Each structure stands twice: as structure tokens, then as C-alpha cells.
């Protein structure tokens, strides 16, 4: 078998900021070791990280910042085949290549009556990426993050060997890999729990909340009755409307809840991209005026209280995926996603952040509030009991950087933290404070990668590796 | 690593006491900035500058502030440049922004009287820039990112009789820096060539200001916006681009008659 040849390629994250150039090589599980041989050899021959640039695996590049970049080093794009996934129905689990995307996987498993245990707001992420970022979805309050549903995984280590690890086999390495941003090794495949579903439809309740207190109260009181729950906040609303929201909560529909055309094809699954944004958008289409109009319309068109609406999986879980390359809408400067956690009891800090953003003139199109449940044992896992707020802002917004640094103080002071898969602006100090178990994670990483084979721009920028 | 706003974590200033260079450092400072290295002839004499810059740049989030340090750098000692750049990178990590701000101005009459002193000035302004610039480019290429800011001068755009030794050294530097930038195409690294006019600074103290004179802070603003926009060339002030576009195309007979000082 030929060893794949790397090509020098400029890479960014989904936010299209902070490009660096790396040697990118396309691999699969059969060729990945050969492609990495040279990098592993040169890492162990050199002393000190600055002497070599190491290697990193990249999935679909949906992290917003520089998590899947490795400037000057090797970046391995790992492919996988969804058709090779093996479903073990009695144990409700599936073994799948890490390079397979949730998009590809759902096309195979939904018609067979299964669903992924956790999905992000986009289905264009790989299983390996879901593990590395320990992604969460609308069901975190009840079911935790993706890593909590991984039964075992195969990890390619810095010495070129592979190991199968799980919550009971080498648990420290397993949990360091969950949320470990790809810096403990390359996940080659994983066995994950899958959820049995009767239909491919969701049954959704939608409710308007007039302000922040209202939506927090509704979520605290009612989220636990639903498997899925999330609120969309109109960040352009200020004053007495501050935090006005649309709360959307749902569950997979049962067969007896369907009728008509839905019942005729209960597990039919069509996920389409209906349009794509062209490659060149000379100026950002996302500005304060356009977003304000959109938000106003969106809020008004939403029902005050609607119960039992039937929606498809793409409609309910992945609405933005209908527009291909929607990140181009932000124009040449790209955009920043800011996702933070504030623990329960620190709602004042949450209000402060929302108020500051709402009154600053920053235009956020997608602002989402979610209530998290219990954390898992992974030292770098983002979710923990509390509220998580997510927003997208054009990176060219005047004064945005200073404001985000200021908000970082509020968040950290409240005992919160940043989601690294989204981050593209913060500092090593913010990560140290937000993730008090960072040193514990580092010790595990250093024990399996003493020469620093696994590196990334994010790791360098946020001081995860040194 | 620079963040999504292009804010650097590390800055290396070659010519660590340059007014313009320091103004650029201050302009690029943010809570993201971790380390500034001032490379200058006499690092021991730069103690006050290091302390002042360190306190002026404020502190990062809950950290002990920005780490400012001085290292020895002799622009005319080309043989030492590659080692110096490599050791700075080994100490502080990736070089996000490198500013090349060293140079000597001198007086044309002095150069006329002492040709050896003219050659020494050209060695600093041009030869030193070539060796250090290539060393920086090597590092940035290996990183796959980073910006080199080269302080050229309008004096190199059309060399005038009143300072043609200095002007010709800047003409050489400018050509080198443009070519270096082009050679880095596709590497992830880039070069920004800065062409200021007359800048009020310690280098020009006591001299009569030329038209469209500017200040180090204004040059720093132009550099910051040039970096943000991914430009390859900036003029400070911007109008000089058009002034020199005209001057460059004047017939010699006309050019020589202009009262250009």
C-alpha cells in the first residue's frame, strides 16, 4: 500500500479566522500509521517541542477556532465508511470508524430504528471529533455529553501502537481522550451506545418566554420532562425584553403519535442541503440591521405556545445544516462563536453577560441557551451543572475583542469556563482557571506522549501543551 | 498563536529601542499578549525600557502581566542572526509578529566624507535586514503562520541626492522585503512592508520635518490595520503612496530641480 503524500494546505476552523498552513494528508485507518511514521520518528529524535511541529487528526473542521489546525505540522484527515458500522442490537451499541460523520451514520442507522446518543447542532461532525470535543446536545440535562455514551475506543498512540480503552480499561487515558482535543492520540474507531427510536420524527413543544427570568424559570421547572430542550434568545432585545426567548423542547415521536404521510413512512430519513452560500462573499451579510430584522420576524412568527408539533430530525436537530457553508455569510473577516458555562447559582453573571452583549451593539444571529446536567469524569469536558450560552458574532465587529476579554472575567469569576471546541480568542490563563483539572489531564497526556507527537494550534495557543 | 482577532501572543522587535517599533508593540498589545522580546545592541542598557514597557502593557487575565525581555542583537553581525532567531523561538514559542525596525539614518555629508561609514550604515540597513529577515522567514515558514513587519521608507521609492546612501539602502531593503513576502506565498507566513514618510522620532530629532510628516503612533495604526486587512504594503500617511507614485515617474531633469531637501 502506498503511503499517502501530504500537501501544504491553508486551514481555518468553521469561523474562518486565524489561518495557518499545515502538511495535510488524507488517510484511513489502514494508512494512518504509515503516514505518521516520519513525524513520530522525528519527534522522538528531537528534544523540545519547538524543534518539531507534530501531528494532529482533523475531522470535518467544524470546530470554530484552531482546534483542528496544526501550523507547520502534519494534519491527518481521517476517512471512514459508515457502511462498515456494526450494530449490536441487544446491547444497543454500534462500532464505527472515527472518521464517519454523524450525517453519514444517521443515513444508515435511522431507517433501522436507531439514533446517536448525542448530536450537536450540526450533523457534519465526525465521531472522532465528537469524542475529542466531548460534544453535547439538547439532551445534556438528562443524558450527558457524547463521551458518557462511549463504551470503548481504539486509540493510536504516539509510539505508533494502538490500544483499546474504556471507562474500565485504562480509565485515566480514556477520560483524558474524552474532551482531550485530539492531543492524547488519534481515535480510530469507537463503540457507542445508540438510542432505539420508533420513528424518524420528533414531537416538539414550542413556547415563547417574555424575558430572561421567564425562560430560566420555564427551563428549570420543565426541562426534565423532555429528553431535548433548548432556548433561542433574541439577543437584539434589550430593556424589559432582555432575554426574550423561544423555548423548544421535544422527544422522539412514537409510532402511535404519527398519522397520515408520516405514519406511512415512519423511519424515512432525508437530510438535504437545500442551498449553498457561494465561496466569495465580499462583505458580511450578517450585520446589526439584517440580524435585528431577522430576529424580530423569527420571534413573532413563533407560536406563543404550541404543543405536539411533528418535525423531522434535520428540522429539529440540524436546521442550519440546510444551508451549505453558511459560515461564508459572515464575509472575509469570519466570525467568532462564544460559548461559555456559568454554574447554577451564578445566574447574575449570566444576566450580566447577556445584558452586556445585548446593549453593546454586537449582532448575534444564533444565540442559544441550554441547561446542563451532571458532568462526566473527563478533566477537560466542558459541560457541568449550569447554564451554557452560545452566540455567533462577526469577527470584524468593532471593540468585540476587548468586550469578550471583559466578559471572560465575569464568566471565570462566577466559576464558569469556555468551550474549547468553539474558542478562538481566549487565553491560557482563562483555560487554567476554567479547567482546574488541567494538570491532571496534562500528566496523563505526557505519560502517553512524552515527545509531543500530538500538537495543535489550539494546544499551543491555550497552553494545553508546552 | 494569534487569536481570531489577529491579536498576537508573542512579538519580537528587531531594533528593540526603535520609537516606531515600540509604538507598534503597544498598538498590538491586548490581554492576549504574553511575551515581548526587544532585540537591541545593548540589552543591559534597556532595563528601564523593559520595565516601563512591561508595566505599560498591563496584565493578561489573572496573570503576572506581559513578559518583556531584552536580548543582544547586532544588526551588522549577520553570522549570528540565524542562531538568535532560533533561540528566541525556542524560548518563547511561535513568533506571531516580528517587527524589523532597526536602521541608521546618518547624514549624507558625513557619508561623503567617510565612505567606510556609508558602507557600515548600508550593512546595518540592508545586509543585516537580509540575514535576519531570512532567518525569521525560516522560522515562520516552519510554524506555518506569523507576520514579519518590515519598516522600509519612502526614501527608497525614489532615491534623492540629499540622502542617497540611506535612500539606496532602503530601496534595497524594500525590494528584499517584497521578494521575501512573495517567496512566502502559500507558507502561511506573510510580510508587511511599511513605507513611512518623515516620522517625528528620536531618529529624526532636530531635523526639519518633510511634508506629510507623521508620528510613530500613526505609523503603528497603519501597521495594525494593514495586518488586520492582510495587506502586503502600507504607507504612512496613506497619501504618500500617490505622492511617490508621481515622483517615481518624473523625468530626471524635473526631479533634480525639485526642492526636496
Task: Describe the protein in words.
The complex is a heterodimer of chains A (466) and B (261). Chain A has 466 residues and is of the alpha+beta class. Chain A folds into 2 domains: 82-197, Uridine Diphospho-n-acetylenolpyruvylglucosamine Reductase, domain 3, CATH 3.30.465.10; 201-433, Vanillyl-alcohol Oxidase, Chain A, domain 3, CATH 3.40.462. Helix content of chain A is 27%, strand content 24%. Chain A contains 14 helices and 21 strands. In chain A, the strands form 5 sheets. An 8-stranded antiparallel sheet of chain A has the order 16-12-14-13-19-20-18-21. In chain A, strands 5-6-10-8-9 form a 5-stranded antiparallel sheet. In chain A, a hairpin with a 4-residue loop joins strand 5 (86-88) and strand 6 (93-97). The mean pLDDT of chain A is 93. Chain B is an alpha/beta fold and 261 residues long. Chain B has one domain (10-257): Rossmann fold, CATH 3.40.50. Helices cover 44% and strands 15% of the residues of chain B. Chain B contains 9 helices and 7 strands, in the order E-H-E-H-E-H-E-H-H-E-H-E-H-E-H-H. In chain B, strands 3-2-1-4-5-6-7 form a 7-stranded parallel sheet, sandwiched between helices. Chain B is globular and about 55 Å long. The N and C termini of chain B lie far apart (44 Å). The interface between A and B is medium-sized, with 41 and 29 residues.
Produce the secondary structure layout.
The complex is a heterodimer of chains A (466) and B (261).
Chain A: E1 7-11, E2 20-27, H1 32-45, E3 55-58, E4 74-78, E5 86-88, E6 93-97, H2 102-109, E7 114-115, H3 127-132, H4 140-143, E8 150-156, E9 162-165, H5 171-177, E10 186-193, E11 195-196, E12 201-209, H6 212-222, E13 228-233, E14 245-252, H7 260-264, E15 275-276, H8 288-301, E16 305-312, H9 313-317, E17 323-324, E18 335-343, H10 347-360, E19 367-372, E20 386-394, H11 400-413, E21 417-418, H12 428-434, H13 438-448, H14 457-461
Chain B: E1 10-14, H1 19-28, E2 35-40, H2 47-56, E3 67-72, H3 81-92, E4 97-100, H4 108-113, H5 115-143, E5 146-151, H6 164-183, E6 189-196, H7 216-228, E7 233-236, H8 240-249, H9 252-257
Parallel strand pairs in B: 1-2, 1-4, 2-3, 4-5, 5-6, 6-7
Amino acid at each position: 500500500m502506498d503511503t499517502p503524500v501530504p500537501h501544504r494546505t491553508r486551514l481555518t476552523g468553521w469561523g474562518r479566522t486565524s489561518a495557518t498552513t499545515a502538511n495535510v494528508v488524507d488517510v484511513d485507518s489502514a494508512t494512518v500509521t504509515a503516514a505518521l511514521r516520519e513525524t513520530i520518528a522525528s519527534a522522538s529524535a528531537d528534544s523540545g517541542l519547538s524543534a518539531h511541529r507534530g501531528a494532529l487528526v482533523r475531522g470535518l473542521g467544524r470546530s470554530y477556532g484552531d482546534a483542528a489546525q496544526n501550523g507547520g505540522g502534519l494534519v491527518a484527515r481521517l476517512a471512514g465508511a459508515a457502511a462498515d458500522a456494526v450494530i449490536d442490537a441487544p446491547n444497543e451499541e454500534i462500532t464505527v470508524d472515527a472518521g464517519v460523520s454523524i450525517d453519514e451514520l444517521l443515513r444508515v442507522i435511522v431507517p433501522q430504528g436507531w439514533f446517536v446518543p448525542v448530536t450537536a447542532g450540526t450533523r457534519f461532525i465526525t465521531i472522532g471529533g465528537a469524542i475529542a470535543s466531548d460534544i453535547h446536545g439538547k439532551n445534556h440535562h438528562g443524558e450527558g455529553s457524547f463521551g458518557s455514551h462511549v463504551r470503548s475506543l481504539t486509540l493510536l498512540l504516539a509510539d505508533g501502537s494502538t490500544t483499546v480503552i474504556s471507562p474500565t480499561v485504562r480509565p485515566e487515558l480514556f477520560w483524558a481522550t474524552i474532551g482531550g482535543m485530539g492531543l492524547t492520540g488519534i481515535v480510530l474507531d469507537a463503540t457507542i451506545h445508540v438510542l432505539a427510536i420508533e420513528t424518524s420524527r420528533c414531537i416538539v413543544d414550542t413556547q415563547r418566554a417574555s424575558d430572561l427570568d421567564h425562560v430560566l424559570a420555564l427551563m428549570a421547572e420543565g426541562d426534565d420532562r423532555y429528553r431535548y430542550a433548548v432556548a433561542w434568545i433574541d439577543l437584539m432585545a434589550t430593556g424589559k425584553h432582555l432575554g426574550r426567548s423561544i423555548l423548544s423542547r421535544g422527544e422522539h415521536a412514537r409510532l402511535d403519535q404519527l398519522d397520515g404521510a408520516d405514519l406511512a413512512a415512519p423511519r424515512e430519513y432525508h437530510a438535504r442541503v437545500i442551498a449553498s452560500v457561494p465561496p466569495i462573499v465580499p462583505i458580511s451579510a450578517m450585520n446589526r440591521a439584517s440580524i435585528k430584522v431577522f430576529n424580530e420576524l423569527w420571534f413573532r412568527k413563533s407560536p406563543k405556545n404550541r404543543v405536539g408539533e411533528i418535525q423531522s430530525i434535520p428540522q429539529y436537530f440540524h436546521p442550519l445544516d440546510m444551508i451549505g457553508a453558511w459560515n461564508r455569510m459572515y464575509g472575509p473577516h469570519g466570525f467568532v462563536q462564544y460559548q461559555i458555562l456559568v454554574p447554577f447559582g451564578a445566574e447574575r453573571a449570566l444576566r450580566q453577560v447577556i445584558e452586556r452583549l445585548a446593549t453593546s451593539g454586537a449582532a448575534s444571529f444564533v444565540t442559544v441557551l441550554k441547561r446542563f446536567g451532571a458532568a462526566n469524569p473527563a478533566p477537560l469536558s466542558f459541560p457541568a451543572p449550569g447554564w451554557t450560552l452560545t452566540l455567533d458574532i462577526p469577527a470584524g465587529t468593532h471593540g468585540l475583542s476587548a468586550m469578550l476579554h471583559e466578559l471572560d472575567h465575569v464568566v471565570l469569576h462566577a466559576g464558569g469556563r469556555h468551550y474549547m471546541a468553539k474558542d478562538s480568542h481566549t487565553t491560557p490563563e482563562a483555560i487554567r482557571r476554567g479547567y482546574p483539572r488541567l494538570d491532571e489531564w496534562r500528566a496523563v497526556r505526557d505519560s502517553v506522549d512524552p515527545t509531543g507527537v500530538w500538537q495543535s494550534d489550539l494546544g499551543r495557543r491555550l497552553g494545553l501543551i508546552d | 498563536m494569534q487569536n481570531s482577532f489577529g491579536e498576537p501572543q508573542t512579538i519580537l522587535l528587531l531594533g528593540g529601542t526603535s520609537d516606531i517599533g515600540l509604538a507598534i508593540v503597544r498598538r498590538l498589545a491586548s490581554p492576549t499578549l504574553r511575551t515581548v522580546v526587544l532585540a537591541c545592541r545593548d540589552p543591559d542598557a534597556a532595563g528601564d525600557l523593559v520595565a516601563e514597557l512591561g508595566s505599560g502593557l498591563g496584565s493578561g487575565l489573572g496573570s503576572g502581566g506581559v513578559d518583556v525581555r531584552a536580548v543582544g542583537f547586532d544588526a551588522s553581525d549577520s553570522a549570528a542572526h540565524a542562531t538568535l532567531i532560533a533561540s528566541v523561538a525556542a524560548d518563547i514559542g511561535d513568533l506571531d509578529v516580528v517587527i524589523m525596525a532597526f536602521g541608521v539614518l546618518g547624514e549624507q555629508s558625513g557619508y561623503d566624507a567617510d565612505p567606510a561609514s556609508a558602507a557600515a550604515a548600508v550593512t546595518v540597513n540592508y545586509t543585516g535586514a537580509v540575514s535576519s529577515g531570512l532567518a525569521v522567514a525560516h522560522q515562520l515558514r516552519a510554524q506555518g503562520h506569523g507576520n514579519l513587519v518590515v519598516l522600509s521608507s519612502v526614501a527608497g521609492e525614489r532615491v534623492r541626492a540629499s540622502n542617497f546612501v540611506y535612500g539606496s539602502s532602503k530601496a534595497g531593503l524594500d525590494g528584499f522585503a517584497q521578494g521575501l513576502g512573495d517567496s512566502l506565498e502559500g507558507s502561511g507566513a506573510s510580510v508587511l512592508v511599511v513605507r513611512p514618510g518623515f516620522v517625528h522620532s528620536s531618529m529624526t530629532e532636530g531635523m526639519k520635518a518633510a511634508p506629510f510628516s507623521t508620528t510613530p503612533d500613526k505609523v503603528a495604526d497603519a501597521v495594525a490595520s494593514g495586518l488586520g486587512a492582510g495587506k502586503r504594503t502600507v504607507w504612512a500617511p496613506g497619501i504618500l503612496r500617490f505622492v511617490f507614485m508621481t515622483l517615481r515617474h518624473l523625468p530626471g531633469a524635473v526631479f533634480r530641480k525639485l526642492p526636496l531637501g
